[in-house]
Amino acid sequence: MPDSPAAGPRKAETIYLTAIDLLADSGYDELTMEAVAQRSGVNKTTLYRWWPSKDALLAAALTAAAPLQISIPDTGSFRGDLTALAGEIARLLTADETAAIAAAVLSASASRPALAAAGHQFFSERLERERVIFDRAIARGEVSADIDPGVVIDLLAGALWARLVLRGLAIDPRYIDAIVDVVACGTRCE
């Protein structure tokens, strides 16, 4: 969003939640600016003033909506932080509130470059926030200084996504521990 809506952050959050709820309920093709305006109580022309398109609104909503946020863990250990982070990612992929959003965005992104770009921005910004996990682990001597946080996050998130979506299997704490063991083993200092 170029500027905060005149109504303030609370109204923006309402609009974001409305947009992602409609996305989860109806899918990308059925989501309209008119439906967002009607359900959130904002004039459609006002929405277009803040976000020039549905994709622009979804990009902002994906980045800012509270249900899609994850807390950055600080457990005191790299393994503990990875386990907590993997648990947060698993929650996003499986919770009723967010699983449909993830599926709708993935499905729509395949044929909509603007939405795919919003997804890329979402994950890029998330990785920047998660980088502190790696900085702390390097400072504690738990991982090599040349670690690539993006690769580690890709391995964690990719394993969770593959298990759930491609294999149709549940994500349980034992699975999270197993993937964290594999990933953490590959990040240790020599």
Automatic annotation (TrEMBL):
Keywords: DNA-binding, Transcription, Transcription regulation. Residues 32-51 bind DNA. Transmembrane segments: none annotated. Pfam families: TetR_C_11, TetR_N. InterPro entries: Homeodomain-like_sf, HTH-type_TetR-like_transc_reg, HTH_TetR, Tet_transcr_reg_TetR-rel_C_sf, TetR_C. GO terms for molecular function: DNA-binding transcription factor activity; transcription cis-regulatory region binding. It comes from the Bacteria. Residues 9-69 form the HTH tetR-type domain. This is TetR family transcriptional regulator.
